[in-house]
Amino acid sequence: MRRARTRSRAAVVLAAAVPLLGACGIRATDVVEAGGPASVQAFLDLDSEMLLFFRAPDGGLSPVIRPAEPSAGFGDAYASGSDSAYTAGPVPTEKVVTTLLAGPDEEDRAAGLGTALPAVRPGGSVAVEPSPDGGVSTRLPLALKDLDSTALRQLTCTIAYNRDADGQVLVRLEGRDGASHSDTCGLARGAPGNVPGAS
Amino acid sequence: MTTGPGPRRARRAEDRGRRGDRPTDRRFPIRAFGLRTRLMLAFLLVAAVSAGTTAALTYREARTALLKTAQDTAVSSFRDHVQQTAFALPVREEGIEEVLRDLARKGKPRPWVVFAEYGSLRASSGENPVSTVITPELRAAARANPRGSFERVVKDGVPYLTIAMPTVFRTSPDSLLPSGLVLYAVMRMTDEQVNVDALLVAARDGALPGLAVALIPGLIAARSVLRPVRDLRRAARSLGSGRLDTRIPVRGSDELADLASTFNESTGQLERSVRELREAEERARRFASDVSHELRTPLAGMLAVTEVLDEDADGLDADTARAVRLVSAETGKLAVLVEDLMEISRFDARAAELNVDEVDVGEAVRKTLQKRHWTDDRVRAELPGGIRARLDPRRFDVVIANLVGNALKHGGAPVTVTLRTEARSPGTTVLITEVTDGGPGIRPEALPHVFDRFYKADAARTRSAGSGLGLAITLENVKLHGGTISAGNRPGGGAVFTVDIPLHAEEAGG
Amino acid sequence: MPRVLLIEDDPSVREGVELGLRRRGHEVRAAATGEAGLAALAAFRPDLLLLDLMLPGMNGVQVCRQVRERSQLPIIMLTARGDDFDVVIGLEAGADDYIVKPARTEVIEARIRAVLRRLDDGGTGRPAVEVHGALTIDRTGLTVTKAGRPLALAPSELKLLLHLSAAPEQVFSRQQLLEHVWEHSYHADARLVDACVARLRGKIEDEAGSPRYVQTLRGFGYRFGPL
Which segments constitute the OmpR/PhoB-type domain (chain C) (predicted)? Predict the structure, then answer.
């Protein structure tokens, strides 16, 4: 009786002492969030540069800045023949989409970037027109139903950031097969859940 | 009783007291789990727990603060430096290491190793492009959530701080877009470890002297608690050794003070009861003594004339002669009885004196037997010569005469008296006198009572020739010599009385 | 038959002892107080004084001292056992012997006879007068002189001196002296001997503190000489 009481008392003392004494030195921790990300300089000039989204090796989207050279002379992508390329303002959306559809260049590939979009036969036309609800509607020279979600987001984000520096534009895609897909990019900071690699 | 029994009795009580004290009279011994030990242990435990807890909590807080400062500094500094860096997108492999080394040099509070991950690109400011310290969890967190994060990792006993810093870039003044580039910084926390270890040492070095310092008030507190207990123990012992006027000083008003006053009340009542008992006993004794005294004077006159009665009885008629002889005989017995009662009273009053003289014990016994005419076959004596002892010859004569007379009366011939000496440790020799008889022995149930006053071993024999005090007086005489007496039966039948008296009992006398 | 003066305050004891002794042929005069006893002394001229110690008024010890101042009349004290202190004082005052009350007449008479009995010379051919140092002991005349001056010795003192000096340098134990000088039992009160020795030394020794004639052998007893 008395012995048991003594023992339980000792146990209480031990229980109090062990965590106090055992916590010596520096221990490992879990991952701890500490403030926001680092905002680096990328020198993006939407008036002369394109922002393209390719597929990173982990499956997420990775933005790439590509200068928009006056390439109309030898580029065959300018199907619409628009003259807006030489005017002030953002690079024409049709050109940006065409460049995206052309796939990553050598530098992009060197960094491990790829695309989920299929190769498009040259000559396919891209038509862009604003929607009445403030969004943008794009007709594409390919069948939408064959595209996976990464490909759709590549197109959506590329178009969105072309039309608006904040990327907050509702983008409507129309395929040659008549299928359509509406979405916003949602990659902007502070929109969890749409981040690449979140699987 | 002109010799004054009072001081004598007091001295005996003192002797008893001292004897009682001796075997255990040590100052409060330190027992294995005594009150003192337990108090000290409890005190130390409390001191240890509080000192330990304080030290541990302080240590933890200090360590946390120290690490937090180091981590926060590192993370914000890393972010600042990264933010001042420009990257092309896609990130190109050439030149990136230069950028990372530049970042690494700016590390605060210490240089760190910077790793970059972009697409399939892996680069670092160090030798290996990929860190072995960064955990998959940190990577996953950095990829899942574009926020800075850190993780402390202990690898091979070395603590590292790993910081993951996803990068974003500005697409418009209001909008940031993740760039896909994640920068990692890995920093050894050796300095922090040194500091934390120093903290631990400081905490321990603070707690241990605290514990040692706590020992002193612990001892003082234990002492103050134990002092009343010690007082109580002394008082109880003093009480046990007969000093009934023992009282404890009552200090303060705590539980121990209550105990002390209760003790005092109890001893007061005890003292009163014992005093009343003693007075009653004293009265009874004095009464017996007074009665004997008063009886003695008329007896002295009567005894002087018994001879006259005896001589003239022959000339009287038969009935008168019988009556006269009866009166004469009973007067003699009464005189013996009164003398024995007087003797017992003196023992009870501790007024009996021992007049010791060095004698030849064998001769003393022989003279005793001669005086009573026990020189025929009924009494045999085995008396080795040359045994000398300091005895009161008159009292020794009473002892021997009573034992032999008792053996003849209740046992039977032959009665044997043997004398011998025996060495008892240390350095004391004991004179052993044995009186055995040829009778049937003493019944076992009677053995414990043979020395009782007026004890009749044989219920049928209502009155014996003796006073019934003979063996009681014998016992008292032996005790007065510092000796012991015992009664028993021999294996072969017959009672045996054994008297042990220290041979050189010079101190035992008066 | 010896003439006995009995001083005893208790009437029954006085009458009993007187009766008993008279029956045995003694001429007895009894007195109830010390004063009366001392007054009767001159007229009655007893051979022996039987003296109770506990007396009203002048007590037995005082009576004893007064008698010893004038004569060497044999004195036997009557005492009760347990009154040890009084016994010692009585013996120091010069009493020759004592009897414990109550006592049968035969015991009392035996004591009286013992005290009055002359020492048996043993009939040896020793000279009647012996000289030991300054002491001259006349065994026939029963006188002792020291340096020509006669010494007043009480009967017990004289008997003790005669007994010891009859065998110079022989050691006698107290018990032997009790038996031979006082005719007591071996186990009797040795203080009788010690008190008598002390009194005797006071009379015959030059310095009572360092005795020449009656020497003590501690643990054994007394002896006469060696001078």
Answer: 126-226
